[in-house]
Each structure stands twice: as C-alpha cells, then as structure tokens.
Input
Amino acid sequence: MNPCKYAIAKCSLGVYGVITVDEPKDVTYADGNTGVAWTGLVIRDVSIPGVGGHSGKVINVKSGNTWSSKRPEVIAQLSSVEDLSPEKLISHARHYLDTFSCY
Output
C-alpha cells in the first residue's frame, strides 16, 4: 500500500503512527538533519534505542507526539475518520493495531 492521509504506518525505527497530511513535507529532525517525510501522530507509547547523537540512550516516545517517516511501511488505511479529533484518531488507530495483534 502507498502512503496517504489516514494510513497507519511504521517508521524505520519501528514506531507506529497515523499519517495526517495529504503529501510529504519538509521536516527538520532533532539532530538538525532535514528531509521530506510523511508526518502524523504516534499511535502508542514505545521506548526505542537512540540513534546518531542519541546513540546509547533510550528514547521514550509518547502517544500523540509528532511522527514522521521518509519511507513509511503502510499497515492499513483508516476510513471514516476525517472528522475525528487527534485523540480519537489515535484511539481508533490503536484499536486497529490491538485487534490485529501481529502489530
């Protein structure tokens, strides 16, 4: 599946997010690097190993934080969610991932 608005996707660090934009946009990462990426919201809390300047640290990513991926791995496309608040959108996406426990 191709990335698109309201898709549930995984970034290269394994963090699941829901895409909230119609097309990729310019982003600046914490380390100062820039790129063009799909952006959205983190679906569930997760701890990941730090990379680059954060190597050797554990980064705690919280649900609702900003999420981005240059090459997202799309898992599913949510439907009928256009009018949901960010909190309800995250809840809907989390329910989908919990229902299909392989994610």
Remarks:
- The longest helix spans residues 86-99.
- Strands lie at 7-10, 16-19, 25-28, 34-42, 46-49, 58-61, 66-69, 73-77.
- The chain is about 15% helix and 35% strand.
